[in-house]
Design a protein that fits this description.
two-stranded antiparallel sheet, about 375 residues, alpha/beta, single chain, about 15% strand
C-alpha cells in the first residue's frame, strides 16, 4: 500500500511540475497552423541577437503545430553567411531540432560592390556593412562586434560536427519549397533581402506562388511625409529590397525599426523565459542569462521576434497602415533612403505594404515567454 501511495505521490509531483510550465495556449488567438502556414526563415543569424530569439520562437511554434518551419536560410548583413549557417546548425543542435535544415545564402549584394570603392566611401562618409569583409576577402577574420547586442559571444558555442545543407544554395531551396507547396510558403525576411531577390529573379512565378513575405527592416517613420532609411537589414542591399517590394507577393508586411520603441526585453522577462523546463529555456539560461545576472538593469531592443508573433496573432497589432514605398538604389549618400506614400497617392507601379508600428506589448511578451517555456 505504501509503495502504491509513493508512486501516486511521485506521479502527482511530476504532473504538478510539468503543468507549472504548461501554459494555457488556448487563450491566444493563433490563426495559423502547420497545414496552412509553412515558413522559411531568411535571417542574418548570430548568437545573442534578436534573430536567435526568432529562431527559437519559430522552432517552438513548429513543435506546437502553429507553423511548419521548412528551413532556415542565412543572409547578410550579420557576419559571413557561412558562419551564420554554422551558428544556426549549432543552435538547433543544442535545442534538439536538427530536423530543421539550414541553407547558406549569398554574401554579395545585388547593388554591387560599391564598398570596394574606398575613395567614394570616404567622400560620402558611407559606412561599411558588417558582412562586406567576406565579399572583399573570403579569408578575412570574422567580425563578431555586431553580436554585442545580447552579451559576450564565445566562438566555442558554434563548434559542432554537423554541417549546413550542401546540396543547394538558399535561393534554390526557396524556389524548390514554393514550387512544392504553392500558396503556402511564407518568406520571413529578417535580414537582407538578397536571397529572396535572387529567387524572384530566377523564377518569375516565385513571388506570386508564395503565401507572402513578412520583413523586419527599414527605419520607416509613421509620418508619411518623412523619409526613412535602409536600417541595418534593408541597408545591406537596397536593390534587393526593391526587387522584393515590386514583386507580386500576395501580401507584404513590414515590421520597421520603430517597433523597438515598444518591445523592450528586461530582466523580469528573462527570469520568466529561463524558468521553464524546455530545451529553449535551458539554452537561454546557459548562453544568455549570465549577461542579465551581471547587469539586472539591462534593457535590450527586440525587433525580429515581433515578425512571427504578428504572423500567428494578427490581433496583437495596435498601429498599422498600408503604405507604398521604394528605396534609393543610387550609389552615393542617399543609398537606401526610403520614400513612402499613403494609399491613394502612390505611384501606380508600387505594391501595397502593411506597416506595423506597435503591438500590444503585454500580450506579445506573454505569448513569447509561454512559447519558450511550454513543453509541446
Amino acid at each position: 500500500m505504501k509503495k502504491i501511495l509513493s508512486i501516486v505521490l511521485a506521479l502527482a509531483l511530476v504532473l504538478s511540475f510539468t503543468t507549472a510550465f504548461a501554459a494555457d495556449m488556448s487563450k491566444y488567438k493563433v490563426v495559423t497552423s502547420a497545414e496552412t502556414t509553412k515558413v522559411i526563415l531568411d535571417t542574418d543569424l548570430r548568437y545573442l541577437t534578436d534573430d536567435m530569439y526568432t529562431l527559437l520562437f519559430l522552432a517552438q511554434a513548429d513543435k506546437a503545430g502553429y507553423i511548419d518551419l521548412l528551413g532556415v536560410t542565412t543572409a547578410p548583413p550579420g557576419v559571413r553567411v557561412e558562419e551564420e549557417a554554422r551558428m544556426g546548425v549549432s543552435m538547433l543542435e543544442k535545442i534538439g531540432r536538427t530536423d530543421i535544415p539550414v541553407y547558406v545564402g549569398v554574401n554579395t549584394p545585388l547593388d554591387g560592390m560599391w564598398f570596394a570603392d574606398t575613395e567614394m566611401v570616404a567622400k560620402w562618409n558611407m559606412s561599411y556593412r558588417d558582412s562586406v569583409k567576406a565579399v572583399l576577402d573570403p579569408f578575412s577574420e570574422v567580425d563578431y562586434s555586431s553580436m554585442k547586442l545580447g552579451g559576450d559571444y564565445d566562438p566555442a558555442w558554434a563548434e559542432t560536427s554537423l554541417k549546413p545543407q550542401q546540396d543547394k544554395t538558399a535561393w534554390k531551396f526557396m524556389i524548390e519549397q514554393v514550387q512544392k507547396h504553392p500558396g503556402q510558403v511564407l518568406i520571413m525576411s529578417i535580414g537582407g533581402c538578397t536571397n529572396t531577390a535572387l529567387a524572384i529573379q530566377n523564377d518569375p512565378t516565385f513571388a506570386k506562388n508564395t503565401a507572402g513575405i513578412y520583413y523586419m527592416g527599414g527605419n520607416n517613420p509613421e509620418d508619411v511625409t518623412l523619409y526613412g532609411s535602409g536600417s541595418f537589414n534593408w541597408g545591406t542591399d537596397a536593390k534587393a529590397v526593391n526587387v522584393c517590394l515590386e514583386a507580386d507577393f500576395p501580401k507584404q508586411l513590414v515590421i520597421p525599426n520603430e517597433i523597438a520603441q515598444y518591445t523592450k526585453l528586461t530582466k523580469a522577462d528573462m527570469d520568466r523565459m529561463v524558468a521553464g523546463d524546455t530545451p529553449v529555456s535551458k539554452f537561454l539560461k546557459e548562453y544568455v542569462y549570465p549577461t542579465w545576472e551581471k547587469d539586472p538593469e539591462r534593457v535590450q531592443s527586440f525587433w525580429d521576434a515581433v515578425t512571427p508573433a504578428v504572423l500567428m496573432m494578427p490581433d496583437i497589432m495596435d498601429k498599422n497602415e498600408v503604405r507604398y514605398m521604394t528605396l534609393c538604389e543610387e550609389i552615393g549618400p542617399f543609398l537606401g533612403l526610403i520614400r513612402q506614400w499613403p494609399e491613394g497617392k502612390q505611384p501606380q507601379s508600387l505594391k501595397p505594404v502593411h506597416v506595423v508600428w506597435s503591438v500590444n506589448n503585454d500580450i506579445f511578451w506573454d505569448f513569447i515567454i509561454d512559447m519558450y517555456t511550454t513543453v509541446f
